[in-house]
Design a protein that fits this description.
It contains twelve helices and eleven strands. It is an alpha/beta fold. The strands form two sheets. The chain has a seven-stranded parallel sheet with strand order 1-11-10-5-2-3-4, with helices on both faces. Strand 8 and strand 9 form a beta hairpin. Helix 2 (9-20) crosses helix 12 (245-254), helix 4 (66-74) packs parallel to helix 5 and helix 8 runs antiparallel to helix 9. The longest helix has 16 residues, at 38-53. It is globular, with a radius of gyration of 18 Å. Bound molecules: glyceraldehyde-3-phosphate.
């Protein structure tokens, strides 16, 4: 492909950054779709960037998923971050314990020697149960931290894949699709314009906290998620994106 031959990686980073209008783009050479082990490199670059952005007193929010689990496993640090608190970006007790944000928080805070707070709330709850739970002091404390998020690191999903993975009833999957959802992040489903078209009944980070953080780091591998990321980038330009080269080309194709 002519464009690929002409463009070096750093030029590609600049081009994608400019096209999306976001703060930073960090690319791992290669294609995740062709080589799935690239997820580790993407996670590693993400972990390095994350460590460089940390400041004393930060509140760090992390989401769940396989990408974020790899991110957690890739963190390497000898420093002690006593003044930092790590929290899950939202409730997450689903079926896969490993990929839950609570587990990711626990791995990361262990490696940072930081403080942490967990959020022992299921992925989705009935209205009434939710209202009761969020009044629990321990849960309230964590939610207060989430609201003060300075640094958010999050994974991105395709709306169709996430609806299936969450085993939503087929009626709701239809509803999400019919509303044009393309992307999912922290329990919100976004359409192409970045409008929220569906939201899980869960607690955690809201759009204000998402927009107001000092550092917002999105990590994804795989061109199939490019459209989902573009949607989310529409509502917050203060994002540092870490992804693979192929995904960067796909973003340019779609814009
Ligand atoms: O919300 C997005 C998903 O958590 C992404 O999950 O990293 O396993 O694809 P994944």
């Amino acid at each position: 492909d002519i464009m690929k031959d002409l463009m070096g990686l750093s030029q590609l980073q600049d081009k994608v950054k400019e096209k999306l209008g976001i703060k930073k783009v960090i690319l791992v050479p290669g294609s995740f779709e062709k080589n799935n082990s690239l997820l580790t490199d993407v996670a590693k670059y993400g972990a390095e960037y994350f460590l460089n952005t940390l400041k004393d007193g930060d509140t760090v929010s992390l989401t769940g998923g396989s990408t974020m689990l790899e991110f957690a496993n890739c963190i390497k640090s000898d420093k002690k971050y006593n003044s930092i608190t790590v929290v899950p970006a939202r409730g997450s007790m689903g079926k896969d314990v490993q990929m839950q944000s609570n587990n990711i928080v626990s791995i990361v805070s262990n490696k940072l020697n930081s403080q942490y707070k967990l959020l022992n709330i299921p992925d989705e709850l009935g209205e009434k149960a939710m209202k009761t739970l969020i009044q629990e002091p321990e849960i309230k404390r964590t939610l207060d931290y989430i609201e003060k998020t300075n640094v958010l690191v999050f994974g991105i999903g395709r709306a169709d894949e996430m609806a299936k993975r969450r085993k939503l009833p087929s009626e709701r999957i239809k509803e999400i699709n019919s509303k044009g959802a393309v992307g999912e992040a922290f329990g919100y489903y976004f359409n192409k314009n970045g409008d929220i078209v569906y939201k899980l009944n869960t607690v955690g980070i809201d759009l204000d906290a998402f927009r107001n953080g000092r550092e917002t780091i999105a990590i994804f591998a795989g061109a199939r998620k490019a459209e989902a990321f573009i949607a989310i980038s529409k509502i917050n330009k203060n994002i540092a994106l870490v992804t693979d080269e192929e995904s960067a080309y796909r973003i340019l194709e779609l814009l």
